[in-house]
Amino acid sequence: MRGDLLWALVDYQEPSGRIAQVDAVVLGFHALYLVEIKSWPGTVTGNSLDWVNVRPDGGRLLKSNPYHRCAEVARILAGGLDRVWREPCLPRPVPAGARAVGRGRRPSSSGSTS
User: Fold this and answer.
1) What one-character-per-residue DSSP string does 46-109 give?
2) CA pair distance 46, 60, nearest whole angstrom
3) For residue 96, is it within any domain?
4) Is residue 18 part of a domain?
5) Any domain includes 114
6) Distance in angstroms (rounded) separating the CA atoms of residues 59 and 37
7) C-alpha angle with apex 83: 79 to 86, nearest 5 degrees?
8) Which of 2-6, 31-35, 59-63, 96-100 is the most confident on average?
9) Distances from the Cα of 32 to the Cαs of 23, 26, 27, 40, 46, in angstroms?
10) Of 2, 49, 107, 110, which residue is the least packed, with the fewest Cβ within 10 Å?
11) Are 23 and 33 in contact (CB under 8 A)?
């Protein structure tokens, strides 16, 4: 991820006023990536609507497919970015209104990301 920036647990305010959270945001040279992290023990199967988590103890949990919420968040953030940044194709900093809990890290001049 040379030159990419990562923020973890990013809070943002939706147009409705609701405060929501993105697990991670990666700002690359040509794109902004939203990362949804799930840590469900056992196996997960499903379709475009529902997922089933079969836990190691045999219990089954029905979960909504997280894609739909992630896509909604992406549309909300894209709309906010469109209002802030008018010119395409130029790298931009994170908007001043975004509150990042994690730290963006740039690689050292040697190319190492540590």
Assistant:
1) E-SSEEEEE-TTS-EEEEE-THHHHHHHHHHHHHHHHHH--SSSS--PPPTT-B-SS---PPPT
2) 12
3) no
4) yes
5) no
6) 21
7) 115
8) 59-63
9) 13, 6, 5, 26, 27
10) 110
11) no
Would residue 105 count as lying in a domain?
no
Question: How does pLDDT run across 72-94, given as a tens digit for each residue?
Answer: 888 888 877 777 766 555 555 55
Distance CA(108)–CA(89), nearest Å, equals 25
- The first and second tokens of residue 14, run together, are 């939706």
How many domains, the chain? 1
Q: Rounded to 10 degrees, what is the CA torsion of 85, 90, 95, 98?
A: 120
* Overall residue count recorded for the chain in this entry: 114
Q: What is the pTM of this model?
A: 0.58
Tokens 């992406």 -> residue: 74
| pLDDT of residue 57 exceeding 90 | yes
Structure-token pair, residue 47:
């379709």
Say which residue the tokens 């194709």 belong to. Answer: 89
